[in-house]
Amino acid sequence: MRTTTARAYPNIALVKYWGKADEELILPAAGSLSLTLDHFETTTTVVPAPDAETDVLELDGALADAGQTDRISTFLDHVRDLAGRDDRVLVRSRNSVPTGAGLASSASGFAALATAAAGAFDLDLAPRDLSRLARRGSGSACRSIPDGIAVWHAGDDASSFAETVPAPDMRMIIVTVNRARKAVSSREAMRLTAATSPFYSGWVSSTEDYLEQMVAACAAGDFTRIGEITESHALRMHGLIQSTVPPIRFLNPTSHAIFDAVAEARESGIEAYSTADAGPNVAVIVRPHDAEALAEKLSGFGDVRVVGPGPGAHLLTAADAVP
Ligand code: PMV
User: Helices H, strands E: what count in the chain?
Assistant: First the structure.
């Protein structure tokens, strides 16, 4: 074993994942598609601790709580199974955004951990197998293994991984409305939606349909169609989530105001489309030449950042280890 450091970036889905076909293997009920960003990275170092009795997690310089530590330990058990070893490890992880605030920190977190742990345990995994491994930590993490725009295939354990697909260049404006940790985790909220929403089966079948159209729009470089599907699918997901019993709402009045401002910008000739994950923050896709002007228009709603397509998860050199 060796000490290994990896870096990964969050991804924001343009066709969303909401609901599992298998809770243990983390297989999605439908496929999804996302953009991996070039900002908000997580850097994670895995240090072998062969004499320790438990794994230890340090998150942003502080010892993590028992719940967070258990979650990574369960994931590391899977890595240990693959490696045929039972060594414990010390995991030091740094996020450049607050954990659990709906900015996909679980995606960058588990993509970085999967990459660093696979290195530490000397697993020589093909990219699709690394994506499958990251999926076991947090479903959306499998989409942060490949670069840029990635499709995550629904399927069985062997076929459910993410890979890059051809797509036109675009920018994303992240409008951070609220940095607080969300009240319900996506994992728990998803489970409740699948168990209680009368719209769930329609959501699953229509998502597969949208995904097929989205992959075709990406291949054709059709930004307008990509945008229309992105905004429509995001609103459909939030509608679905609100139909959970008892209801769950992630968007707040500011989030809705941003969706409205983006629709107004469209009327005035800046073509842009909104989406939002399990939180109030909004991500807006836009053509590269319109990004700065639109970011300026949205700056009154919160902290605004223009980001682009980013690299997949990768190993760093020892000099970059998280202290
Ligand atoms: O992988 P999780 O459990 O963090 O769930 C991600 C859920 C959404 O971000 C809301 C949608 C998505 O496809 O990323």
Answer: 8, 16
The count of domains in the chain is: 2
Q: Does the Cβ of 275 fall within 6 Å of ligand 1? A: no
| 139 ligand 1 Cβ < 6 A | yes
Residue 40, amino acid = F
| Closest to 16 (Cα-Cα) out of 278, 309, 310 | 278
Q: What is the DSSP letter of 97?
A: S
Atom of ligand 1 nearest to the CA of 237: 10
Quick check: 185 pLDDT over 70? yes
At 263, which CATH number? 3.30.70.890
**CA-wise closest residue to 297 among 278, 275, 272:** 272
Tens-place pLDDT, residues 108-166: 999 999 999 999 999 999 999 999 999 999 999 999 999 999 999 999 999 999 999 99
Instruction: Identify whether residues 150 and 245 lie together within a single domain.
Output: no
